[in-house]
Structure formats: structure tokens, C-alpha cells
């Protein structure tokens, strides 16, 4: 069921970016791994994200070969799968918050192809998701999935990287819905001590080219880094730092406290 008084997922995404802009800050989009380390903890984390002021949530679906992810998220994938996580149990983590916060499902192309474009889009729509991020699906191979999602009002969010040439960036931007995910650096996800020096120019290129917002992810792990990115981008995506906090917690309640406290610091930094 699509949430938000009948608004489409694409419209809900646009609305939260516009609202954040009206508040004079970038939108905050924390990542979480569905069903990690277990469904109860994932549900508690999703609720904590919503209560802490997340504008959007990126929900990772556990997968055995997460090629875009570094060791922390890869380990979370492995643990979730060992504990019996499935596509549906991962989606269930956000059932209680999807009507309040737009949820973008991040999964790899193999899962999409296994389900087929129509079933994939239908499962996301039934879960109340606002769209999908499929990092390893090339633009040229995404038409069927993009159209199946669009038919249900859902976004297919593309990615651009520092290595994306201008002509390809223009093609990606032309087809983008929701927002463009700007990968801050080459390599996999993970906490980094400093942001890539080329990030400012890359983000500016995307914002000049794309009709939808630009949100930056990969390597943002402190409130200070989030604030720095928030000065040049429309949205800030934080993943590994939060997944590590969940992994180190000894209960669902502790995980919720840890992520809530960190996100409150990030929201404060973005607002300043």
C-alpha cells in the first residue's frame, strides 16, 4: 500500500527534499540492513530512525555478494542471512514507518532479476516503499525495472561516481527519478577519515545536470562530515557508521538508543 495520503513514492521523495530545503538543510537518509541482526532489532532501528528525524531511509536487502559494500556491511549481510533473513523479512523491518518516512530499498540486480521486474515492483509497492536503488544494474539494462516501478509511482534511483563521464552523467540524469545517488569516492562503502577532494566538483556537476536532487553517500561517518556534505548536496546518506553501532549493541533497545543518539547529532550538525 502506498502511503502518504495516496501520494506516489516519487512525490513523497520530492516532498521531503523540498521540506528539508525549506528548513535550510540537506535531507538526512540513514541506511539500515533489513533483518539485521534479527527482525526485532531491525524493527527497533527503523523506528529509531523515524523518531530521530530521518527524512528518508535506505533499506538494504541482505545478499551474499554485496559488491559495492565494505567489510562492515558485508559482515551484516552474512549475519542476517545466517539468521534466516529473506527478501520479505528484510522489507518487514520498515512496515511500521513507511507511512511516515519514504523508504528506498537497496538491493542487488540478481535479486531483481530472480523476481522479475513486475514482481519486484509489486513487492516494493505492497511494502509501502517509495522506490529502489540497484547499484549494479547498468543504465542500459534498467529500462524494464524502471518502467515497472514507474507504473506504481515508485522511483528507480541511479548512481553516479567520480569516474562517470559528462555524457553518461547527462543520460543518467535524464532518466533519474527520486534523486541521484552520488558516490563520494571510488571503492566500497565504509567509514573514512576525510571526504574525497573531488566530491565538491562531482556534486556540482550532478546538480547542474539533474532535474532531481543529489544525495551523497559512501564514507560519511561523523556529524562534521555530514555537515560538510550538506553544504554542497541536497541529501546526506550515512550507512556503515550506523550498521556498526547496531552490530556492537547487545539488544534491540541498545541498538535503537545508539543510532538515535548519533542521528540526533547529525540532524543538529545539518541544521547548523
Description:
The protein is of the alpha/beta class. The chain has helices at residues 9-22, 39-51, 71-82, 87-91, 109-115, 117-127, 143-150, 166-175, 199-209, 223-230, 240-248, 252-271, and strands spanning 27-33, 57-60, 103-106, 131-133, 155-157, 159-160, 180-183, 214-217, 235-238. It has a 9-stranded parallel beta sheet. Helix 6 packs parallel to helix 7 and helix 10 (223-230) crosses helix 12.
How does the SSE layout of this entry go?
Layout: H1 9-22, E1 27-33, H2 39-51, E2 57-60, H3 71-82, H4 87-91, E3 103-106, H5 109-115, H6 117-127, E4 131-133, H7 143-150, E5 155-157, E6 159-160, H8 166-175, E7 180-183, H9 199-209, E8 214-217, H10 223-230, E9 235-238, H11 240-248, H12 252-271
Parallel strand pairs: 1-2, 1-9, 2-3, 3-4, 4-5, 6-7, 7-8, 8-9
Throw out a few tags for this protein.
9-stranded parallel β-sheet, alpha/beta, single chain, 47% helix, 272 residues
Query: The biggest beta sheet, please?
Result: 9 strands, parallel
Cα gyration radius (Å): 17 Å
The percent range for strand residues is 5-15%
Shape: globular
Number of contiguous helices = 12
Q: Tell me the helix content.
A: 40-55%
Low-confidence stretches: none
Order of helices and strands: HEHEHHEHHEHEEHEHEHEHH
Quantity of strands, as a count = 9
Terminal Cα separation, in Å? 36 Å
Class from helix and strand fractions: alpha/beta
Mean pLDDT: 92
What is the topology, as strand order, of the major beta sheet? Answer: 5-4-3-2-1-9-8-7-6
Amino acid at each position: 500500500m502506498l502511503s502518504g495520503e495516496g501520494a506516489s513514492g516519487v512525490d513523497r521523495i520530492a516532498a521531503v527534499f523540498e521540506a528539508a530545503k525549506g528548513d535550510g538543510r540537506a535531507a538526512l537518509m540513514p541506511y539500515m540492513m533489513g533483518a539485521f541482526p534479527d527482525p526485532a532489532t531491525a524493527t527497533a532501528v527503523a523506528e529509531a530512525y523515524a523518531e530521530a528525524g530521518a527524512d528518508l531511509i535506505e533499506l538494504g536487502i541482505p545478499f551474499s555478494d554485496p559488491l559495492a559494500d565494505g567489510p562492515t556491511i558485508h559482515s551484516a549481510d552474512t549475519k542476517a542471512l545466517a539468521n534466516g533473513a529473506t527478501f520479505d523479512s528484510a522489507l518487514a523491518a520498515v512496515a511500521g514507518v513507511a507511512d511516515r518516512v519514504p523508504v528506498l530499498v537497496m538491493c542487488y540486480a540478481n535479486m531483481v532479476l530472480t523476481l522479475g521486474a513486475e514482481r519486484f515492483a509489486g513487492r516494493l509497492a505492497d511494502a509501502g516503499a517509495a522506490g529502489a536503488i540497484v547499484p549494479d544494474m547498468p543504465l542500459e539494462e534498467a529500462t524494464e525495472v524502471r518502467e515497472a516501478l514507474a507504473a506504481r509511482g515508485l522511483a528507480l534511483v541511479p548512481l553516479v561516481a567520480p569516474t562517470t563521464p559528462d555524457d553518461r552523467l547527462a543520460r543518467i540524469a535524464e532518466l533519474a527519478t527520486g534523486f541521484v545517488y552520488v558516490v563520494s569516492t571510488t571503492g566500497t562503502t565504509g567509514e573514512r577519515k576525510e571526504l574525497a577532494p573531488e566530491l565538491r566538483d562531482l556534486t556540482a556537476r550532478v546538480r547542474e545536470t539533474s532535474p532531481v536532487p543529489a544525495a551523497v553517500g559512501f564514507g560519511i561517518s561523523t556529524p562534521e562530515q555530514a555537515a560538510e556534505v550538506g553544504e554542497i548536496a541536497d541529501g546526506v546518506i550515512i550507512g556503515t557508521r550506523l550498521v556498526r553501532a547496531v552490530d556492537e549493541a547487545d539488544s534491540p533497545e541498545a541498538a535503537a538508543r545508539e543510532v538515535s543518539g548519533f542521528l540526533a547529532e547529525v540532524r543538529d550538525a545539518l541544521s547548523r
